[in-house]
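Supplementary Note 3. Input sequence used for the single-chain structure prediction.
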Amino acid sequence: MSTPPPPPAPGPACAPPAPPPYAPRRADCPWCGSRRLRPRPAGRPALVTCRDCRHAFRNPPGPERPAGPLARTVTGLRHLLAARALLRHCPEPESWLDVDTGDARFPRAARRYFPYTSFDGLDPTGRVLRARAAEHLEEAYVGRLTDPRLTARLRARYDVVSVLRPDRAPDPRAELRAALGVLRPGGLLLVDLAGPRALPPHPPAARLRAALRQAGCVLLTPAGARRVIARTPAQPRRTSAWPATTSSTCSHSAANAALRRPSSSR
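The predicted structure, written as discrete structure tokens, is reproduced below.
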């Protein structure tokens, strides 16, 4: 009996279809709106830099790549440092929202310092739902913080909002405004500019700090710090868009710390 011929090699028709683009390519800077974009070196074709504000971002945005063991270790250390940086300003927040949380790795790390805090997560992918099912999060939201439906639902709900991957935001200015909107009066915003080594600080720290001051926030970290922590006004302006709410436990912690601080001798 003759040996049957081998099956034909799969041709182009058998190949899986190419995935759709993650997002369209931008012609302008998402931070300042300038169209003067400079491509990065040939080895990093997806990165561009704005010539006017030096904002660096992926263009077009791409999906998150799986991290190797070393990258996971470095990220875990960065998460612990970010959580510890906030500890001195608010030791016992009641509620915390982590933006672009993914598998909730940061909330899991932060529980080392905040074991009694209720952590919620927001992510544009379904990974956040799996994190909630694994009981790493109390509540999970799929989408972007700039979605008006989410913004209205979460208005003035949290003591702390963390943004550890600001390079993922399609519109960083709009996301900054939305993050401040879901904080309670006197709440804390944590933005980690350390980021992965593949990207420079995003957005530029000086412009981020200026935008926070313009919004009435008090900056709690010095200029040049890679982790920016800002406190929202304790008494926000009363408008129909911002109903009266209870102040953040972080503002209470700051007041109590000031009362406990010994007065200087005269």
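The radius of gyration is 22 Å. The longest helix spans residues 69-87.
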